[in-house]
Amino acid sequence: MLIFAHRGASAIEPENTLLAFNAACTANSDGVEFDIHHVDGKLMVIHDRYLERTTSGRGLLIAHSYAQLRQLNAGKGAIIPTLDEVLTVVTKQSVINIELKGIEIKYISVLFEYLDNAKEVLKLNVKKILLSSFNHHLLQAIYRQRPEFSLGALTAGLPLGNAQFAQQLAAYSVHIVLDYVNAEFVIDAHQRGLKVYVYTVDNLIDIKKMKALGVDGIFANNPHQARLYLQQI
Question: Annotated catalytic sites, by residue?
């Protein structure tokens, strides 16, 4: 069972910052997960649409310019990083899961530019990239334009057809919230050839349950602690 550092090692360092991603790389995680928004022509690594929870700023993320956002404190003096900055840090991770939060279909060419540049400059193996989203129209558009990228289909509930929607999207994996994953869903997804990744899993009881269900990976805020728990099972 893989362990993904959720927004980096976000229980240890401020989420979605280079501090958190550096911590994730030393925490024995198998992969890293983070969120991106398209802002002012740039791809910024941040989870929320609003700034208050994770930064010193206020208001809507997209109401600010790139220069303004770079002046904010994202925790412990860290700035909001760009996608290319994060990729530079996490290149050696086995799986790099980029969740597409605030990016419209018309801007996916910007995403491709970033990833193509990382492939050329950082020698990043694009097979490590896993693009996930709750916006299934966006995933469909990516598959049609760049089918070489693996896709992760996100769901915040338990779909009536279990993992059928993810198979229809030609996804590599289906990402389901901890509260709703069950044996029927996992079996169905595996029968469809999909990996099952569950978010967010941090305590020993839940990790034991996920292991018993046979899920393929979990997203943890403290990947080091999750690894220690997994070793106890």
Answer: 6, 47
